[in-house]
Design a protein that fits this description.
Mean pLDDT: 89
Structural class: mainly alpha
InterPro entries: UPF0014_fam
Keywords: Membrane, Transmembrane, Transmembrane helix
Strand content: under 5%
Largest sheet: none
Order of helices and strands: HH
Number of strands: 0
Radius of gyration: 16 Å
Low-confidence stretches: none
Pfam families: UPF0014
Number of helices: 2
């Protein structure tokens, strides 16, 4: 249903954001491309994406609840 479609869409956006960030950092040689840096930076970016998603959904629910109680 629509819940599965929204989950897939959110996952795709998280993957895209993570890929762009990692490609930028390693492509511009901001960090040495090694498994330890890749794992650490990937974890940081994915964690921040999850936090952003959670805060966005909480804010959206609060706005919807205020508008249509």
């Amino acid at each position: 249903g629509s819940h599965i479609c929204a989950t897939i869409r959110a996952s795709a956006w998280m993957f895209t954001g993570t890929a762009v960030t990692l490609l930028t950092v390693f492509g511009l040689r901001g960090l040495e491309f090694s498994p330890s840096y890749l794992l650490a930076l990937g974890g940081i970016v994915i964690g921040n994406c999850m936090t952003f998603s959670t805060l966005t959904v909480q804010r959206l629910r609060a706005l919807l609840h205020d508008r249509w109680p």
